[in-house]
Structures are given as C-alpha cells and as structure tokens.
Design brief:
heterodimer; A: alpha/beta; Aconitase, Domain 2; Aconitase, domain 3; 3 domains; 5-stranded parallel β-sheet; 18% strand; B: alpha/beta; Aconitase, domain 4; 7 helices; 7 strands; 19% strand
C-alpha cells in the first residue's frame, strides 16, 4: 500500500515506516514561537535539565501578535524575548517584519520539511508541502532542547478539488465551505490533503490560505503536493535549491474522500460564533457591519490586497464603516505599495496598520465595541476573539470584505463589479 | 504494584465549543507573564463567575470541542492553577489535549451528557473508569496513547523529559 503525503514526510524524517495511527519521533527543520507564546516557552525551556538549544539557527522568535507594543507588560515580554535571542543566538524577527506564518512561508518552509510552532496556524506552511503543525509551550520548549518531538501519524482525508472558481470566489470561500461541511472537529487529529485539477492551478497564496484554516476543522495539518508553482515561488524567494517534487502515492490509503467542484462555490461567510457556522453570502444580505478587517495570516498577502484594491478602486468605504488593512509582511507591504494597492486602499478610506496580527486576536488595533459587528478576512470568529464577547465577527474573503466596506452591509462581491 | 490513581470532586458543567478565547482571551495577553493575575480570569468569557466558584478538585465537564483554537498553553495552565482535577469532554481540540497532558492535567474523552452540574464525580485513572456517584452511573473513557500516559504520570512533559532525557515510545 502506498503512502499519503503525511506518511511519506513522517517516514522520511523519522526513519521508520510511518503509517496512520503510529507514534513516531522525528527531528524538526524549524521550530518557532511568537510574542504571546514565547515567554512561557522560554520559561519552560529553562526548566529542562541541561537545557541548551539543539540548534539555534533552526529556532525562531517572531514579534507579531502585539506590535508595536500596546502596553508595558507586553513591552517587557518583548524585551525578555530579545534578550533570550541575544544570549542564545537563535533567530529573531522584530515587530514590523510580518506575521510568523507569512515569514515562515517567505523564508523557511520547503516541501518535505517538518515545522512546529507555538501557534495553531503553523499549519499554513502546508501550502508549500511542509508537514507543519501547532503545539503548546511545553512541547515547543522540549523541541528547543532536543530538536525533535513525537507525532501521532494522522490518517488523511483526501480533498479532491475540480473546476474553476467563479469570478470573486476563491480559496477562502473553498476552505470556509469545507469547514462548514466537516464541522469544527470533523477532521480532528486528521491530515487534510488537497489534490485535484484545481489545486494544480492554485497560487501559493491561495494554498497558504487553505492550509492556514485546516486547523479550524480540527486538522493537524493541511497539506499540498509540490509542483511547478511551488518551484517558481521558492525561486522567487531565493530558495530554488530547496524545491523537490513531493506527491502522495497513487495507491495511498485515505480515511475519507471529499470532492469539491470549485465552479459551484459561492462567496461564503462564517457567522458568529464558530468557524463551522458557514452560509452563502446571499443569506446575510442586509446584515449591518461596523468594521472591516483585511489582513492576517489567512488573507493578508499581496493577492488579497490586490483583490481589495480592485474592488475599492475609485470608491469610498461607507462613512459608518471603519476599514482597517494590515499587510501580512513587510515584503507584502512593499510590493503592495509598488503596485499602487496601498494608495488605492487609503484613498478608499482605509486605515493602514503595520505588518502583524493587528486586530485578529483582540489585543489592540481594532477591538470591537459592544454589539458591534466586524467582517474580517481572519480565521476565527469565536466569541470574544476581537477583544469583546459582546461583539460579532463574520469571516469572509477579501473580495466579500471589500465589497461590504462600500455598503456597510455584508455584500456579495459579484454585485459590486 | 502502584495503587490506583483516583480523583474525586464536583462537576462544573459547560457546553460545546469552549474555545481558548473563552478560557483565557487574547485581551489578557499582557498578563501572560503574570500567571497568578492571568488565572483570575480563567473561563471568564464562558462563565464570569467560574473563577470565584471553582474549588480545588472540581471537574470541568464539557461537550464537544473543548479547548479548540489557539495553541496558548496558558489555557490549560490557568485551569490547572484553579485546582481542577481533570476535564471530561465529548471531544477536545488537538493542541489543547497535548497541552493539558503536558501540564499534568488529565483530559478524558467520554459521553458527558448524563453528568449534571454539581454531581459528585470519581475517576479511576488507572482502571479507566468514571463514576457519577450522584447518579450512580459508570462511564468509560477513550484510551490515551502510552507516551501521553507516561507524561501524565510524571506530572507533565518537562518532569518527564527531566526524568528520561528523551521520548520513550
């Protein structure tokens, strides 16, 4: 019997014939923390006897969740992380560099790599064919010290995508549709492995969006095979030598097969307060919103800002709407400036935030008021997520979010253009 | 022969989809290096009275998807700091499951429908039995992988690694 992509990567790295359900120990290629999980990780690492970093150049700290720091306690956490990096020689990326998952994609993730991070959206790197998953601080602290961890090899769901997206329908709508169909724990402990004709045409940006949200169906990883598109992306990021072709075997064993025809998808929205509460946008016509947030590790990339800029070109966001935009990285911001997207968005009334997590997790930069509603391109709409349990969060694509900014109601982007 | 590990306490009931944002919201990120202060907000957005009412040895009884969402281990940690004996749920988020075990906090997957708030609960971790003494019913829970049982019996991942120096599978 052949192997799934998950089984292939875990077999290669662990050196054993890894099959779904097995427990394996595997070295990791990159381990990282961010500013809200890093301090606890470091304190736990210091409790490990004889704790030295296994390999400082494969350990990264990203300051992204609370930058620039909104208060003195978080500033002190940032100091603590900087000092640790100075003392140990591990990598550190300062506030303003970008969101950890975007920087991992831009600088580190390669097909066949194993990546673990103290952040649940570590799964994003699956878009580049890396077996990447989130863990908590204790697990990550031990990886700091040992350079390896244990995994239960996940059974895989094969997600076979055919057809071509309609205009203004895309990767975000596909993954929202899938999470709605699976449920928030429908893929718990499983790997979502994406295949099919439509996948071979997807940009890396789209693949990262889909992989990013695999965790919202409970999955351990969201994995894409590598191909010429992966190769071009890695070359553009200066890592042409890291490309390798990686596919599941044709006779691999999947626990479940799910077929999706991209052509049949409509713009989709996850309504409060769970990500699997997904409906087509037309159901929500007339739903008033107070804030529009375009950004995050899900949808803060250049293509996402381009989509928003096309929809908002020569238009204004509604006077009752706060439109906030946070590019996912400095690279994205620079490219969006050169392409004129930033000028367009600011012209439409957007407030530009620095590359980082921004309003997504309720620390700062866009906390919602009581009874307010936000349409966001992020990945979570849990109660309280954006800093206020009395507020509502709707998750949608950049196209739907941008269209909604114009009308102040949840709006089908196909009706605007 | 080791004696059975038995936990006894009172049921504290929650529903489905108790995310890490409800257990310990991102708005308290500034307290993450001040765990005693952070712990005062445990479960706040799910039940604002929980932190005041919870007593050491109580059990959290939940429905589906307990602990889904963020990887923040603080969520498991503040529940442990509140003295909670164990979490019984129909299903849990994957990362939260590892985090809780790594903190030495048992998470047991079982059908929690029949357990009501205030019921007296007894868990025999060694035998894999849950008893609701108030109702006079017994429940079983799903098997935990050996590596996790070993971590749990050492009181968490860091003590486990300090004892064995590596993962033993």
């Amino acid at each position: 019997m052949g192997k799934t992509l998950s089984e292939k990567i875990l077999s290669e790295k662990s050196g054993v014939d890894a099959r779904a359900g097995d427990i394996v120990i595997s070295p990791v290629d990159l381990v990282f923390v961010q500013d809200t999980t890093g301090p606890l990780t470091i304190r736990q690492f210091r409790e490990v006897k004889h704790g030295r970093l296994a390999n400082p150049r494969q350990i990264a700290i990203f300051l992204d969740h609370a930058i620039p720091s909104p208060n003195r306690q978080l500033s002190n956490d940032h100091q603590f992380l900087r000092r640790f990096a100075e003392e140990t020689g591990c990598l550190i990326f300062e506030g303003g560099s970008g969101i950890c998952h975007q920087l991992v994609a831009e600088m580190f993730a390669n097909p066949g790599d194993i990546i673990v991070g103290a952040d649940s959206h570590t799964v994003t790197a699956g878009g580049l064919g890396a077996f990447a998953t989130g863990m908590g601080s204790s697990d990550i602290a031990v990886v700091f010290a040992l350079g390896k961890t244990w995994f239960r090899v996940p059974a895989s769901f094969k997600i076979e995508v055919s057809g071509k997206f309609q205009k203004w329908v895309g990767a975000k709508d596909l993954i929202l549709h899938l999470i709605g169909a699976l449920g928030a724990d429908g893929a718990a402990y499983k790997a979502l492995e994406f295949n099919g004709e439509a996948v071979t045409h997807m940009t890396i940006s789209q693949r990262l969006t889909i992989a990013n949200m695999a965790v919202e169906a409970g999955a351990k990883v969201g994995l894409f095979p590598s191909d010429s598109i992966t190769k071009r992306y890695l070359a553009a990021q200066g890592r042409a030598n890291k490309y390798r072709a990686l596919h599941p075997d044709a006779d691999a064993d999947y626990e479940r097969l799910i077929a999706i025809n991209a052509a049949e998808l409509e713009p989709m929205v996850a309504i409060p307060h769970t990500v699997d509460n997904v409906v087509p946008v037309h159901i929500l016509t007339g739903t008033k919103i107070d804030q529009v947030f375009i950004g995050t590790c899900t949808n803060g990339r250049l293509e996402d800002l381009a989509t928003a800029a096309v929809i908002l070109k020569n238009k204004k966001s509604h006077p009752h709407v706060r439109l906030i935009v946070a590019p996912a990285s400095r690279q994205v911001l620079t490219a969006a400036m050169k392409a004129g997207y930033i000028e367009t968005l600011i012209g439409a009334g957007a407030t530009l935030l620095p590359p980082g997590c921004a309003a997504c997790l309720g620390v700062h930069q866009g906390v919602l008021g009581d009874n307010e509603a936000c349409i966001s391109t992020a990945n979570r709409n849990f109660k309280g997520r954006m800093g206020n349990p009395e507020a509502s969060i709707y998750l949608a694509s950049p196209a739907t979010a941008a269209a909604s900014a114009i009308t102040s109601e949840i709006t089908d982007p196909r009706k605007i253009l | 022969m080791m004696s059975d590990v038995i936990l006894k306490g009172r049921a504290f009931k929650f529903g489905d989809d108790i995310s890490t944002d409800l257990i310990i919201p991102g708005k308290y990120s500034h307290l993450r290096s001040n765990l005693p202060e952070l712990a005062k907000h445990v479960m706040e957005d799910a039940d604002p009275t929980f932190a005041k009412k919870v007593k050491p040895s109580d059990f959290i009884i939940a429905g589906n998807n307990f602990g889904i969402g963020s990887s923040r281990e603080h969520a498991a940690l503040v529940i442990k700091m509140a003295g909670v004996n164990a979490i019984l749920a129909k299903s849990v988020g994957r990362i939260f499951f590892r985090n809780a075990i790594n903190q030495g906090l048992p998470v047991l997957i079982c059908d929690t429908n029949k357990i009501d708030a205030g019921d007296e609960i007894e868990v025999n971790l060694t035998k894999g039995e849950i008893t609701d003494s108030t109702k006079g019913i017994k429940l079983s829970f799903s098997k935990i992988p050996k590596v996790m049982l070993d971590i749990l019996s050492e009181g968490g991942l860091i003590p486990y690694i300090n004892k064995y120096g590596d993962f033993i599978i």
